[in-house]
Design brief:
- By secondary structure, the protein is mainly alpha-helical.
- Helix content is 57%, strand content 8%.
- Strand 1, helix 2 and strand 2 form a beta-alpha-beta unit.
- Helix 3 packs antiparallel against helix 4.
Length: 122
């Protein structure tokens, strides 16, 4: 599966939901070892593994998960816009007019996805 994603600028994230309440951080050695084993067997970055306890405070964990995904998305759109911009700089405006316009539109779209409306309208 990892080979199929190579070169596509993707990121895999695993979210686990626990039925039992977790022990305080640092006290559950077995869970830490299992998390490390899971990350290494799936070739995951440790920051791409999220463990959510199923309990009263699930809403707070969901908000933290949403913020983490938001940061991943912001980084992705920033890198994509940077790639498009670097490709656009190599174009000749007189001979590559359609491609130049396409790149401008694509950059505007990516900046809108980043919620950077000011830069998107440039």
């Amino acid at each position: 599966m990892i080979a199929a994603l190579e070169g596509r600028n993707t990121r895999i994230t695993v979210v686990l939901i626990q039925n039992n309440l977790p022990l305080p951080a640092g006290e559950d050695v077995l869970a830490s070892e299992r998390a490390i084993a899971l990350c290494s067997s799936c070739e995951l970055n440790s920051q791409s593994l999220f463990v959510l306890p199923h309990g009263d405070h699930l809403q707070g964990y969901a908000v933290r998960l949403e913020n983490a995904f938001y940061e991943f998305a912001q980084t992705y759109y920033h890198n994509e816009a940077k790639n498009v911009k670097s490709h656009k700089e190599h174009l000749n405006k007189s001979t590559h007019q359609y491609l130049f316009v396409r790149h401008q539109f694509k950059m505007g779209f990516l900046y809108e996805l980043k919620q950077d409306v000011h830069t998107a309208h440039k």
